[in-house]
Amino acid sequence: MNGPPAVSVITPTKNRRKLLCETMDSVQHQNFDAWEHIIVDDGSDDGTCEEVTRRMAADSRFRYVRRRGEKSGANVCRNIGIAESSAEFIVFLDSDDILNPSCLGRLIQLMQRNLDLDFATFRAGVFEHVVGDVRGELDPQLLGDDLLRFLFFECPWIITGPVWRRDSLLRLGLFDESLQSWQDFDLHVRAITRGFRYLRFPEVDHHVRWQFEPAKVSVEQRRSPRHLEAAIAILEKFEYHVRAGPGMNWVRQRALCSLYFFVAEQWVGIGKLSFALRSWGLIRERALGSRVLYLSGALLLITMRLGFPGGGLCDRIVGRWKGWMRLRTNPQLIRV
After folding, report:
1. CATH topology for the 7-209 domain
2. How far apart are CA 190 and CA 251, in angstroms?
3. For residue 12, cis peptide bond before it (omega within 30 degrees of 0)
4. For the chain: N or C, fewer Cβ within 10 A?
């Protein structure tokens, strides 16, 4: 590479040396040379430092940064990566995901031709072991209200999807390091509610590894009491940004209610009915949902905890109720 990098790829990681090697390979095999790949290590002890150092000796575009200080987590590491970056554009790439060979070149060309964009997003493919072993993409829909989809806990795009203008990220305020989970949702909700300019494209240019890891934040946020307790502050933050930005309306209220019910369902799933009812009751305290919505939802939470009715009937009843109460964006197919 001659001259400064055009794009900084930022990868937070911890004890994923083998998977990280595949991620780094996908960056090194780009058909575009003007990149730097910043690996921010959150405290690995599996040889990650040695592996990245070895690659740095062969290719100076790789950079290794060890997270210092008491704060840890992906939010902190991504912010460190942004501070260390030197390019005009930034892409976040998790340490188990893969970029298509043409990804970075196309992203930079797009952003350089559209100077009014704060970011642009592309779709994600999914894989388990090697790219192509799972058919399908994340989020095939491009139409609709992206803010609502985030508030309904859907994913118009994931963290690897956007290419950001670095100045726009700085103006947005980076990642909220106080959040234990939902940090990417929070970043994207803030960008949309503050009126950032962006475009979405249908092409798949990156691939997300589909795997179950009990320690992953996406799993912990559904099972960990610590994460579920912290989720309420996140929902209140979402509400604040909606009110301060485009404003609250009935459908956004319903979307926020769906998130409160989601948290309540997770409490029920770990056997904490009182916490579930308390979380769900906040829709009344915050004037987001009606008394009928609250009472009917509370009754369902109780029946879910009791396990009655059995089989899949309870799930079907909850699914229909969500449809009747407009707690989801799309109809649910009920199979006979």
Report:
1. Spore Coat Polysaccharide Biosynthesis Protein SpsA; Chain A (3.90.550)
2. 18
3. no
4. C
